[in-house]
Amino acid sequence: MAYSTESKWLTASMAFALAALSASTAFSVYFWKKKARVLASKVEELEKSLKSSIDKFVSERQGRVRAQQALRKALVEPKFDNSELPSYPMTPIGIIESCFSTRNGTPRQPLLVPLARACLVFNSARVPPASLEGLGEYSHCWIIYVFHLNTNLEKLWKDPTKSKFKAKVRVPRLKGGRMGVFATRSPHRLCPIGLTVAKIEAVQGNMMLLSGVDLVDGTPVLDIKPYLPYCDSIQGANVPNWLMEDNLLAVASVSFAENFTFTLAACWEREGKNSLYASADEFQSFIKQVLSWDIRSVSQRNRPRDSLIKRQNGNGLESGSDSDNHQGEAACDHGSDQVPLSSKEITYHVIVEGLDISYRIDISGNVIVEKVSQSQTVPNGNRTHSNYMTWRGKLN
Questions:
Q1: 366-394: string of b/e by CB count within 10 Å (b at 16+)?
Q2: CA–CA gap between residue 79 and residue 262 (Å, rounded)
Q3: Which helix (H) or strand (E) segment is 222 a member of?
Q4: Residue in 382, 329, 327, 318 with CA at minimum distance from that of residue 354
Q5: 0.85 cut: is pTM over it?
Q6: Is 246 helix (H, G, I), strand (E, B) or coil?
Q7: What is the C-alpha to C-alpha distance for residues 33 and 74, in angstroms, rounded to an integer?
Q8: Among 19, 184, 206, 245, which residue carries the largest CB count within 10 Å?
Q9: pLDDT in tens, 97-149
């Protein structure tokens, strides 16, 4: 009887154990099947994503191939129909606030006037401060800009077909002789874009102080790039013979009349706080550097000996400029309309920092700076962001 009861109990225990094992097995099978379905779903999603990425990559590659083929075809078979040529509108990244108030007297090339200063004010809406990080570690930079004072600029951009393009321009170093425009640095180009180099004095906020500039006030800047001596300086580069005479446009001497000091002191008392220069003496040194080069146009240099000086509009003012540069200055004659004048009798003018500097130059190339006065026609430029005090701690 006891054996029978024990046997039944053992049988029941085994049955229960088998049932529990079956239930556990069934649960495990269900769990793994569910997990397998989830994994299968994820694999399927990954496969779809991979396929989509591959399709996108293939599509992009095909697009690049087509673009390259089209470019090669355009290069091999260029079209010259202006209506079909692409255009590339560009917005300036900043504006130059320069010591040169007008084109008149602005150096023909960079670094000729070491004291020539300008502040490049970046458009803070387009140029984040982080983009200027590291720029101050370079000594010089390239500046790409627009010749915005070209008289035909609006016509050139709005209707290029009606804009007259001169294939040859007058070159100052050739004394008015003509040369192909692309063999010169004339501002009067099919695409009025300029390239210059300047010394970086300091970078502060959204501004950069430059020196040695040949840029007029208000110049729009398209881009800047650091100057790299190891690749930007080309040893043994060749230039035409007519460019070899470095002092062709240098004057013999620059001196200041007695009255100049008094007129400068009076102007400096009123305008000195707005200047990029520390003192009247430094400003006078800057003027001497500017006038150390003959900044007159070819026609103005030739006129005293070759032609008559005629009054313009009854006020004795006339202006001239070379085709190969953006220089020229007003010349005032004090003689008769029919009497030839020597260069000593002509007063020339150059406007810097809103101040009108009047000077004479004799036939031997000696410059006498007579006086300085507040310009009545040109205000002190667009400089609203900086003066010498802004950069005092960063100028050597």
A1: ebbbbbbeebeebebbebeebbbebbeee
A2: 63
A3: strand 220-226
A4: 382
A5: no
A6: coil
A7: 61
A8: 184
A9: 999 999 989 999 999 999 999 999 999 999 999 999 999 999 999 999 999 99
